[in-house]
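In this supplementary section we document a worked example of the pipeline. Step one takes a protein sequence of length 292 as its only input; no multiple sequence alignment statistics are reported here. Step two produces a three-dimensional model, which step three serialises into structure tokens for compact storage. The input and output of this example are shown verbatim.
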Amino acid sequence: MRYQSPDEDSARWSGFPFRDGDIVISTRSKTGTTWVQMICALLIFQTPELPAPLAELSPWVDWLLLPRAEMIDRLEAQPHRRFVKTHTPLDGIPLDRRATYIVVGRHPLDMMVSLIHQSDNIDRAKVRQLTGQPDLAPSAAQRPRRSVQDRLVRFIDDDASPQEFMDGLRGVFWHLSGAWSRREEPNFVLVHYADLVSDLPGEMRRLADRLAIAVPPERWPTLVRAASFSEMRDRADTLAPDPKGIFKDRGAFFRRGASGGGRELLTAEELAHYEERAASLAPADLLAWLHR
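The serialised model returned by step three reads:
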């Protein structure tokens, strides 16, 4: 399956040169991607002092703003265990037995609130320039933005296919359902954003075990502190996924680091409507895990 958006294309995975131990972090937008990338970096290097900005160490494979040849050359030159990022569902990327695939889930309403705020923080004119897209007509550029609540309600009702809009509600559940069906396989790991919030040390230890990475006991406090949301926000200049300078404010990328933002904005009727939609798009056991 091929997935495309104005700034990403899963076809860039074709011929990806896997090697033993590779880690693929496959997520929907704003579900904890950068958080899990940072955890992997800390486990691999075992120090908060990373040898390069996080986005250089762990490139976004599908991203059209980064030339593919440059990305592959950089990865081929890495002597350490490699970890890469993708927003493509598992059925759109090669599944190689030498790699471990980490899929992160987050309540879709919280994800969308965070994504709305991130969208407002992106310099769209610069993205269009970097991807060779035409400028917007003046009337479109001046169009007023809808409220966060209104955009959240539209997200619930949006029926676009995953191929049309990966971050639509159907796209979110398609991505997670593919991972959920593989959750018992040894090289697939599911992580819940809420667990990173409530038990970061436990989740880091669980990932270390699944990745077969040994960490000396005395190093754990330093690594856990470096993976905390507040510490990452303080280091936004080197940790935010912004190698091409498209964010208006890198610090704003790390906005809240908590759960519940989506449900706070909706009425009881709107929440009930969301739950009906979700039940039509995903199995009950996945929803129980995702909505807890």
